[in-house]
Amino acid sequence: MEKIIDAVMNRVFDEVDASWEEEVQFLQKLGQFPSTLGNEGPVQHFIAGFLEKELNLTVSKIIPDIEKLSSHPGYSKPEWSYENRPVVIGEYRANGEQKGKSVIFQGHIDVVSPEPASTWNYDPWGATIVGNKMYGRGIADMKSGVAAMIFALKAVRAAGIELSSNVIIKTVTEEECTGNGALAAIEEGFKADAALIPEPLGQQGLTAQVGVIWVRIKVKGLGAHTERADQAVNAIVKSYKMVEALLDYEKELNSRPKHEAFSNHPHPYNINIGKIHSGDWPSTVPSECTIEARVGFSPGINPQDIKNELHAYLLKASEKDEWLNENPPEITFYGFHAEGFAIDQNQELFETLGKAHELIEKEPLTFSSFTGTTDARFYNLYYDIPSTCYGPTGSNLHGPNEWIDLDSVKRVTKTYAAFLLEWCKYKE
């Protein structure tokens, strides 16, 4: 990185410093949009306007085309509409000879629900600052990274520097449930030589992640008034058998030989019982109970194989119960159909990111394997575009009082800016 520690680099860093309060305010504005599933439209239109007016980018808005995507191996089945929920793409188009390489910066703008909000000490949509932390749903995961990637390019532009390769800024929907937003943008042709995703991994480079599927299990009972509950069949009680089977399957997954990327992880493949719904009256024996769960599994395994195996496993478990044997559960899959991946850290993307990281952090870049999934899978698995995640430091993702360390956001903004100058090159 020595060759870019010069007046150009210092000028860009000065711009990051000068625009820092604006970046914090931008992040607060992002955090105040309750952009849960189905509600991403308003924040996406805000970002599109900002990219167009403040960064002078060419902006596109696309709606995922399910018919077009459904045959893709990375496609995940949704149960909702994409109307008024665009993916936003901003393009910096380099002029003349392109000396460097192009890059995609991609962040997801969808966030999970903060409920129950009563468990929070701060307004989940308040983007409250206390000391060097900002609190709010989605502030860490991953609106802080979105702010950093946008303001890194903004600083380069404000410093009057002309990059020699294209930069694509993407803010996508549905990273938290399908990844179809990211997939749709790539399928529309928005590609580059590498992709960097600012997930809040504490300024580490991502080299592996697990695969993920979602399963829904509907258990039937025999409803009745509670005065004859002894003659009825309570679907909630019967659903325990399926919960136990899911937990047993989790043990089974983790008892198998681990993928080398997770060899030192004690429990990489998690199954989460995320939703249970049943009943509508305390004095009525429920006739139906629905369980929804998330299942993690090893890289290198086809998600359909896990679905087939889990389906058979659950049915076999149900045969041990007299009622469920006669009335087997209905097992379906929706949402995540996500394959895991592992990539080699000995490649140019990590070399350049490592130099930029070390320039700012004064220590070598470290790497991690993630027991969740990210949109990086699409680039690495299906398009031969090297991709990793690298972002700020935060905590309580998907939990109460989610927060991001603002000092880390500023440092990551500078790291991204340094990466842009080295990866894309610039006109002298």
Describe this structure in words.
It comes from Bacillus aerolatus. Belongs to the peptidase M20A family. Its cofactor is Zn(2+); Co(2+). Residues 208-321 form the Peptidase M20 dimerisation domain. This protein is an alpha+beta fold and 428 residues long. α1 (7-18) runs antiparallel to α12 (406-423), α2 runs antiparallel to α5 (139-158) and α5 crosses α12. The strands form five sheets. Strands 1-2-6-3-7-17 form a six-stranded mixed β-sheet, sandwiched between helices. Strands 4-5-19-18 form a four-stranded antiparallel β-sheet. Strands 11-13-9-14 form a four-stranded antiparallel β-sheet, with helices on one face. It has two domains: 2-209 and 341-423, Aminopeptidase (3-Layer(aba) Sandwich), CATH 3.40.630.10; 211-338, Alpha-Beta Plaits (2-Layer Sandwich), CATH 3.30.70.360. It has helices spanning 7-18, 20-31, 41-54, 66-69, 139-158, 180-187, 235-255, 303-318, 322-326, 348-361, 376-382, 406-423, and strands at residues 58-62, 87-92, 103-108, 128-130, 133-135, 167-172, 195-197, 205-209, 211-220, 224-225, 271-278, 284-285, 288-297, 330-338, 341-342, 367-370, 387-389, 394-395, 403-405.
